[in-house]
Amino acid sequence: MKEFQSQRIGYGEDAHALGAGRPLIIGGITIPDSPHGPVAHSDGDVLFHALADALLSAFALGDIGLYFPPSQAEFKGLDSLVIIERVWQLLLEQVSDFSVVNLAAVITLDQPKLGPQRSVIQANVAELLNLPLDRVGIGFKTSEGLSPQHIQARVSVLLRGHLRG
Ligand SMILES: [Zn+2]
Q: For the whole model, what pTM was predicted?
């Protein structure tokens, strides 16, 4: 029973409009031969943005807009790995016995098809969170043509730890 008392669910979402000729980066991986990529202040990595929010939400620490306001010029073109690293550092400071149990993510995108990139995205996220591959679930959906110029990520995580009092 004690084990469950330290468990927290985190959830995050992120979405960007897609523009022609921009790089498409998902989970730190640049998707080859994409006709478009996110129009964003940073590199527009929806998976990392949703993951950062999921991690913060589990301990009610707000969201990345709080720590990375779009108005700040220093975040222009920011590699989203930096966002994850800063959020991770924040959690290590605020949470004792912190660990990630597993992650489940869904990316919604019509084109290009992401299936061939699943294992490389999964491996990159697993390495980042120091998790075995079978604890990193990456799913792909399309919008069925309803929003072809749109990319979205949804991420849930199960974490363990106690907020430092
Ligand atoms: Zn974003």
A: 0.94
